[in-house]
What does this fold into?
Amino acid sequence: QLQLVESGGGLVQPGGSLRLSCTGIGNHYKIGWFRQVPGKGREGVGCISSDDGSTEYADSAEGRFTISRDNAKSTVFLQMTSLKPEDTAIYYCAAGAGCFSPGMFRYWGQGTQVTVSS
It folds into this structure.
């Protein structure tokens, strides 16, 4: 049983950066980052594998977001740069076997709010 906890969300101006953290990941699961806005389903942002640290990103995140993991600290990071107002959402980390499909993830954090606004 994993207990994932996200942190690092907040208010940032357009063009700014934030780094989200997800602790309690264990070292054997692929970790995905998702985001959700009211009235919509969870959108996959990207994921990182448990073994070689390979990553995949959604088109909306490619080139702006970077996922990394520190297995010694059981933590995964989502570094977000060049943030846009449309990045505003609740961001979740999840542990499982997939990448962009929420149904492939068994464990979820409680989410952290990211607001991009001037």
User: Anything to note?
Assistant: The longest strand covers residues 89-96. DSSP finds no helices and eleven strands in the chain. Residues 87 and 116 are 7 Å apart (CA to CA).
